[in-house]
């Protein structure tokens, strides 16, 4: 490929990425010159969209620059065969409840993860507030908060917990055991581990099913290609240009199966799996803090146990954590 065409391809991809960031984040042209730095500072919701743009522009842009015609690629019947078969396989593979979850998790990849450093700081503060309340007023003071957390003045200060029923129930159900008493810390830890494992296992299902559909796409592309070759053989005595067109259409089926699998579906499945792992880390943090408190440790020490389990990407320093949970300015 001539150097000027490479320059054009790079320019097209860069402009698409820059346009997305300028549109959604309001970056100026100067700020876009340090785009990698800005990516690290912002939420990651644009990564999936940018990835889609890069995959599309790189593949089809390169195809056009090499003299290909997009009209050959746009074959509605091939999309029908491959897409229809993939959707049918998805329906066969998963029950309705899981299909709904797959759709929700897939759409969630475009929004990006809401988990960040502030999420963990607020979580640590919630744990500290509950530990302090229990220490000052006794465990009985927690009963009203854990039995009706939606109307609790304490829990309502933390929307990321209130709006996530898994986190909310995990915290409240465990504190209920502490209030009831009679359970050793190691038994409570075992119970929490089972709860976390169950939640994590359920969270892996959408990504697993999507991964299997992605694995099947190249095979479905071959099915479409074989059908195209069958049609071509029926016109084998036709003009060369007609036969050539039919062969090209058949090969598009193989291309689409591989392209959709490795360019879109499998990366989305990986994204969903990573989001599930990230969510599980939240539960590990909660568990560490609550087990430390159940063993009778000081609230700030118990929260320190929780802080140590936070992934390094989001983990605050001890001084920052202490300042935040104690409400110091």
Topology:
Elements: H1 3-25, H2 29-32, H3 35-41, H4 46-65, H5 70-73, H6 76-93, H7 96-111, H8 117-137, H9 143-147, H10 159-162, H11 165-180, H12 185-234, H13 240-294, H14 299-307, H15 318-325
Description:
This protein is mainly alpha-helical. It folds into two domains: 1-68, no CATH class; 70-329, no CATH class. Helices cover 79% and strands 0% of the residues. Helix 11 (165-180) packs parallel to helix 13 (240-294) and helix 13 runs antiparallel to helix 14. The N and C termini lie far apart (59 Å).
DSSP helix count? 15
DSSP strand count: 0
Overall number of structural domains: 2
The major β-sheet equals: none
Termini gap: 59 Å
The helix-and-strand class reads: mainly alpha
- Secondary-structure element order, N to C: HHHHHHHHHHHHHHH
Name the shape in a single word. Answer: elongated
Detail the poorly predicted runs. 1-14, 17-21, 23-43
Please state the average pLDDT score: 85
Name the helicity range. over 70%
Share of residues in strands: under 5%
Which radius of gyration do the C-alpha atoms yield? 27 Å
Outline of this structure?
This protein has 329 residues and is mainly alpha-helical. The chain has helices spanning 3-25, 29-32, 35-41, 46-65, 70-73, 76-93, 96-111, 117-137, 143-147, 159-162, 165-180, 185-234, 240-294, 299-307, 318-325.
